[in-house]
Design a protein that fits this description.
InterPro entries: NUDIX_hydrolase-like_dom_sf, NUDIX_hydrolase_dom. The protein is of the alpha/beta class. Helix content is 27%, strand content 29%. The mean pLDDT is 91.
Length: 289
Amino acid sequence: MLLGDGEGFVKCACGNRHWGRYGAAGLLLSDPERGVLLQRRAWWTHHGRTWALPGGAVRPEESPAQAATREAEEEAAVAAEAVWVLAASTEDHGTWSYTTVLATARGPVRPRAISRESAELRWVPAGQVERLPLHRDFAAAWPRLRAQLERELVLVVDAANVIGSRPDGWWRDRAAAAVRLRDRLGGLARVRGIDLGLPAEGEWSWWPRVILVVEGRARDTPPDGLVEVVAAERDGDQAVVDTARGALADRPRDHVVVVTADRELRARAQGEGAAVLGPRSLLDLLELD
């Protein structure tokens, strides 16, 4: 790779030198059975012989998530299609930033060192990571990264309430309005945690799993592969509560956020342990007026 592709050291405003003219990114890949995938850096690299993540410089016109998955494939033979990106934590120094991309394995992953930069790759149980000689910056970030490990963001959207918050003639064709909302939700990616009020230390973003709860004339709204659809049999509010409860029962550590303006429904959702978000905030994320 040429230095023009983003490689090279940056003299950071923090006083240290960092790798990556456009920042850098690493992939924190976890597997429930094996732990997290760590890389022991070759002796000749910056901070050599320490353990950290597969990763490297971000190229121009490349997102940190794309950089992290590309570097993991180049250094550890981890195919991009074999990982499911859940979240990202960014440490921004102003003149330079590093993004840790958290992901889980969704297919066969058999990592092996295929780059000169990797001396060894190893699956390490989360509770044993701190026993290794870690890269200085990874060691500092590990406690906050571990707190969010394998956690997913689940958005449970009260379709009737969100659609009804916009005076755009939705009542003329509620089914079509639900499909339009579903389609826009399908394009929702990398939502900032601060925009959702999620309690997490540092600057976090999430790739959400979206569940759209529909009722009445919109009950026949089909899923599209990106958005799950739950059709309420009778009571739409009860379906929203049941969906949030079920998500937390299956994965209690996940961030479940219910999107609705209904005060009673918001209280019920919070009673189940979910966070709540108003339709206006969601529509702003979708860039809808």
